[in-house]
């Protein structure tokens, strides 16, 4: 017979930790959901903070350029020019007319950004130029090395469309900024109107004729564009670098009527704007704007003087880095190349929003009716006021200050700010 022990059995001790149980599936899903919620809350905040820092850096770059403009002025008693200008014809009797029905675009040998180099702590790059009166990409010269430097001041960190190195595929430095070279926003309609373009103080004929052209040097006068840094060189001289005698081009750019021969306008030696020329006030006039988003995939509108191909306006050394302010290209007044419809009639197809800042910027590459990568179409960042800040652009004013203009800024206000001596007062509530 067996007797059961009355002593209680002692449980075998378990190793430490064996009493813990794992998370259930529901608990794991709850934790994952909480983490996802936190990420969704924090990520936009991080992105906004990053963009705010990039915008601040972009504005600091533009302040440095503003300081450079005034340092240049102190040294030269004039501001540097935009690198791009328009040519008009002044008759012997003093009347002003156009060549045919269009303006002729002319370029200085060097860009605004080249002229600013010594004044933004880039003297070493400027010293690499062997001849600042020669275009940057002429293979027969020694300016190539200088133009193949990335200049941090000319790069906005918000522009994620260009290479982060700041160099294009040919090794030339990018710029995400540009000086407005002209404005052809109609002051009455707000629509682009090249035929209605007005030079301050000189009203062009509604239907400009083709004047009898002479070759007198005094008759070749680049337009005093409305902008503050317009090209002002007014002497037709035999340039150090320019087209051969007898050609019809001015500074290696657009063709003139055949009777205008033998002159190359050396715009580099022409005087720039003086402070007294900015009658609207230095603090009310734009000097430089962002044009972020330009890439080498966007073809220029003008023939490169040393070729092959078209000018590369995304490069800081290219005089064509200056640009016009025209607003939404799908809203324009017919009668000139690039705008459909009858002369004097506003085209009303496509996007009809009156907008001068970041027009047609999204989707990236442009909407179907306004693609970025077409020569001279002025869509998105293709030679217009643009940035990838999404809600506006930084601008440097002629007094060196920096302002942020939102996308919704009234187009007539943009015209007022971009013109230098239109003598149109800004309203108290304009800003």
List the SSEs and their pairings.
Layout: H1 25-76, E1 84-90, E2 96-97, E3 104-107, H2 112-116, H3 123-126, H4 144-147, E4 177-178, E5 180-183, E6 220-223, E7 236-237, E8 264-265, E9 286-290, E10 323-325, E11 392-397, E12 402-406, H5 411-418
Parallel strand pairs: 5-10
Antiparallel strand pairs: 1-2, 1-3, 1-6, 4-9, 7-8, 9-11, 11-12
Features:
single chain, 431 residues, alpha+beta, 4-stranded antiparallel beta sheet, 12 strands, 17% helix, 11% strand, globular
What do these coordinates show?
There is one protein chain. It contains five helices and twelve strands. With 431 residues, it is α+β, with helices and mostly antiparallel strands. The longest helix has 52 residues, at 25-76. 43% of the residues are buried. The chain starts with 24 loop residues before the first helix and ends in a 13-residue tail after the last helix. 17% of the residues lie in helices and 11% in strands. The protein has helices at residues 25-76, 112-116, 123-126, 144-147, 411-418, and strands at residues 84-90, 96-97, 104-107, 177-178, 180-183, 220-223, 236-237, 264-265, 286-290, 323-325, 392-397, 402-406. Mean pLDDT is 74; it is low at 89-102, 196-225 and 231-271. The strands form four sheets. Strands 1, 2, 3 and 6 form a four-stranded antiparallel beta sheet that branches. Strands 4-9-11-12 form a four-stranded antiparallel beta sheet.
